[in-house]
Amino acid sequence: MKNYIELFLDYLRAERGLSENTISSYANDLKKYTQFLLSKGVNNPFQIEKAHIVEFIEKGKREGFKLSSIARRVSSIKGFHRFLMRERILNKDVTSNLESLRLWKKVPQVLELSEVEKLLSCPNIRKPQGLRDKAIFELLYATGLRVSEVCSLKINDVNLEVGFVKVKGKGGKERIVPLGETALHFLKRYIEEVRPKLLRNRESVFLFISSFKKNLSRQSIWKMIKLYIKKARIRKEVSPHTLRHSFATHLIERGADLRSVQEMLGHSNISTTQLYTHINKVRLKEIYRKFHPRA
Asked: Scanning 147, 152, 187, 249, which has the fewest C-beta atoms within 10 Å of its C-beta?
């Protein structure tokens, strides 16, 4: 199994152009999958049956894994089996009728506009690090970029004159996302006033720099978000994707069309973007129950 998984991961790198973070997630999921199969006496792909996969998924549910984690495991397993079919290692795909398992889509948490305002006002822009953090938050909310995409942004990816940012997303796909005036203002201030101080006469192609003169990591931005969420006294379960979810939801609530939001988010399939129309309906129901006298 190990050799087949290595071939699959090489395929994801070379032909699909996936990021190392994504490949690492696939590797971890398939490692757990392989360990489970070995516990059942299955040590090669030819012995795998649909029942094994269903049992593995049920085991994850019993162990309390989040639905998003289970859904990702299903996606990793399906991708692996499709690869084995593509390479003609297997002549039957036992995952082909597991489509119904994809219904485990949890509505993501979003911030209200007032909560976004509180969060964006938290960084102390009188301090260099605070001005940098402010620029990052304004960029995240203005563009809906993934945190990993923000970390990999290069200085030449930002066009302050025209007002857009060039993003390399999943699978190496590039997209252009417009910037609002507020985000442009704080990005310009960060680039002119703070970035040279953080670099201390050194050079870097990356846009956002840490105090150690390196580009910021995903973990650094995640810690930053948690710190400011606490400071803003927002009592919601917030993830690194929360500002991205809020960006998309607020656009759709105000009448933006799905295709445009899909383009800005970098979704390859519009069905992923359609999740945000469901969020909108859920929020409308919440408002109805809260304010209607007979709800």
From this structure: 152
